[in-house]
Design brief:
heterodimer; A: four-stranded antiparallel sheet; four-stranded antiparallel sheet; 30% helix; B: N-terminal domain of TfIIb; twelve-stranded mixed sheet; elongated
């Protein structure tokens, strides 16, 4: 009888331990996935920011008339001129966000494109950009409405906001019931190329 | 049962261990990604900060300061000045920063910022003054009736091309500035002021002009033709440009020297300097030229004026041909006067295609407050002067009504953004040409 009780007891304990193990395994896997996803988001963000800053710092470089640096200024699309490779010829550079993709679980993800001169625009959906927002300000700090062509010459600083999210939801911390997209957000409030500001 | 439990525990321990190792590695990579961005931002900030310090050292000096290095913010920055690149009067500032931190390969983070600067060249300004007040002084040294009055730019006024004052502008209404406007002090605004800065504005900018002796020495050294009034009986001299030739008369009204020759023969290099006398000019010129007049002492103390007796225009018109090789600099040690001519009327046109520089005076019209309505002066180029020269008197209305003198139209010559007439004055101050950040 006591043997039977031992067997039943050990089966119950073993089952409980297995259930605990499975629960722990799920939690660990979720945390691990979340960790990897956050890493990916952060790496995407830092890489994008580096590229954005690299380009935006050069706006107007070797452009004879600083008033002509910017050719298009929209909320999520900018086109400007600069000698990007220092070869003496002025290049055109565009950054713009495409429409939201429908093939990923995260419906907000879109492709952030960079277009240099007449080359085809390049971008990658895997970077997970969900927001690319631009605002423009004159020397007074007054916001210049997007697509105000006649005011492009007065653009003094640019505010750039970028949000990157994971394509899939991951668990929030250790709470497996609560999942959301891993996200990173970056904003440069007054990004300006010195070439725009050079003295008249 | 006991053995199997141990197996479970060992299995779970391995599972947790592996998972925690992965999580730990991801955390390390996350920190590594953050540190990578932080370090590149840090070294970039060091390079930019050093470049800013170097720029401030440079801007208000006549020549490049010595190279220097600074240590701050966890790194070291070396600032060097490379003169005469890419062309004379230019200097390249290079700021190279290195952090104390290294990446995982042991390589220190580095960044470079380069700024190219040049001496401010006055030819590019369509309007430049030391102060925005009238400074009319006649040929005998007497002040005009509006001397010392503030110059106000109001609705209807427009400036095409860079504008600057080493004091402050005065605005009311909606004057229009097509290109960037700068000043040492913030503009004084009238009650209805709402100026339009199409190219932006910046206050706190000082652009130093050379002193008279330095300016005269530079031009004299470059002169292909030098006329000294003291050596010619105190007589003034007139140059009438006739395309490729120039007629030289001393005195200007005739009765003395009167000769015509190719401009290149009179002044190889294109620089013509008059000392101790006034210079009178008119006609159609060819080539890249600068004419200058400087005063002296004694009887010549009020000399050094340039008199514009009639239109002075280029043989190949730069207004509709930006590649025209013809450009003229007019440099007056004292005043530049548009000569009084009472035969002009409201439809008259006087065209000046030149950059005008008045070291101790202004571009004005002789007796502008006392001459008939004389039409329009069309200055294609610009003027740099000590005070704000006026050409006429008008009632602002509405309707606007001209009472005396000329209406004034100034349009910059885009060629002067990068070129200028030979030995035309330039500032001791530097300005930014281009700025490169990696």
């Amino acid at each position: 009888m006591s043997v039977m009780l031992d067997i039943i007891g050990s089966v119950i304990i073993a089952g409980y331990v297995i259930l605990m193990g499975l629960q722990l395994n799920g939690s660990i896997m979720g945390t691990a996935t979340s960790s990897v996803t956050n890493l990916n988001v952060q790496e995407s963000m830092s890489e994008l920011v580096r590229n954005l800053e690299y380009d935006f710092r050069k706006i107007g470089y070797h452009v004879a008339d600083p008033k002509m640096c910017i050719a298009l200024a929209d909320t999520s699309h900018i086109k400007f001129y600069a000698d990007m490779d220092r070869d003496g010829s002025v290049d055109s550079v565009e950054w713009f966000a495409g429409a939201p993709l429908t093939t990923l679980p995260n419906p907000a993800i879109r492709v952030l494109y960079r277009k240099l001169n007449q080359e085809d625009a390049g971008g990658a959906a895997g970077l997970g950009v969900t927001q690319f927002k631009l605002r423009y300000f004159d020397a007074h700090g007054t916001e210049i409405p997007p697509l105000s062509t006649s005011l492009y010459s007065q653009i003094w600083t640019i505010e750039v906001s970028l949000r990157v999210e994971s394509p899939y939801q991951v668990q929030a911390a250790v709470n497996t019931e609560n999942s959301e997209y891993a996200a990173a957000y970056w904003r440069q409030t007054r990004l300006a190329s010195r070439n725009i500001k050079r003295h008249g | 049962m006991g053995k199997s439990t141990i197996v479970y525990v060992i299995g779970l321990t391995l599972l947790v261990g592996i998972a925690l190792t992965n999580i730990g590695q991801n955390s390390v990579k996350t920190v590594d990604a953050y540190m990578g961005y932080y370090s590149t931002t840090q070294v970039h900030n060091i390079a930019v900060s050093g470049a800013n310090v170097g720029t401030n050292y440079l801007l208000n000096r006549g020549s490049a300061p010595p190279n220097f290095g600074v240590t701050f913010f966890g790194g070291r920055d070396s600032i060097s000045y490379i003169p005469d690149l890419p062309q004379p009067l230019w200097v390249t500032l290079r700021s190279v920063a290195v952090t104390n931190m290294s990446d995982q390969n042991g390589i220190q983070y580095r960044d470079t910022v380069e700024g190219v600067f040049k001496h401010v060249q006055f030819a590019k300004f369509s309007w430049f003054t030391e102060s925005e007040i009238n400074g009319y002084i006649d040929k005998n040294g007497n002040k005009g009736p509006y001397y010392g009055y503030a110059d106000w730019k109001i609705t209807g006024d427009s400036v095409w091309g860079p504008a600057h004052t080493n004091n402050h502008f005065n605005f009311d209404g909606t004057p229009y500035f097509h290109d960037k406007i700068t000043g040492s002090l913030a503009a004084v605004l009238g009650p209805t002021a709402n100026p339009v800065y199409n190219g932006g504005f910046q206050w706190g900018i000082q652009k130093k002009r050379p002193n008279t002796s330095a300016l005269e020495a530079r031009l004299t050294a470059a002169a292909g033709w030098y006329y000294d009034g003291n050596a010619n009986g105190g007589k003034d001299v007139a140059l009438t440009f006739i395309n490729d030739n120039v007629r030289v008369q001393s005195p200007p009204g005739g009765g003395g020297m009167d000769t015509t020759m190719p401009i290149t023969t009179l002044a190889p290099g294109g620089v013509m300097v008059v000392k101790n006398a006034d210079l009178r000019i008119k006609g159609v010129y060819s080539g890249s030229l600068t004419v200058a007049a400087f005063s002296g002492t004694g009887a010549a103390v009020n000399k050094g004026n340039v008199w514009i007796d009639g239109s002075v225009t280029a043989k190949i018109n730069p207004v509709n041909n930006p590649s025209s090789p013809d450009m003229l600099g007019i440099v007056a040690g004292r005043m530049a006067y548009i000569t009084q001519d009472n035969t002009r009327n409201a439809s008259s046109q006087l065209n000046i295609q030149a950059a005008v520089y008045c070291q101790n005076g202004e571009l004005t019209a002789e007796n502008f407050w006392n001459i008939p309505v004389s039409g329009s002066v069309n200055l294609f180029g610009g003027v740099t002067q000590i005070s704000a020269g006026s050409l006429g008197v008008f009632n602002p209305g509405p309707p606007l009504q001209f009472l005396n003198g000329f209406s004034y139209r100034i349009h910059n010559d885009a060629r002067f953004d990068s070129l200028q007439p030979p030995s035309y004055p330039y500032s001791d101050s530097y300005e930014l040409v281009s700025w490169w950040e990696d």
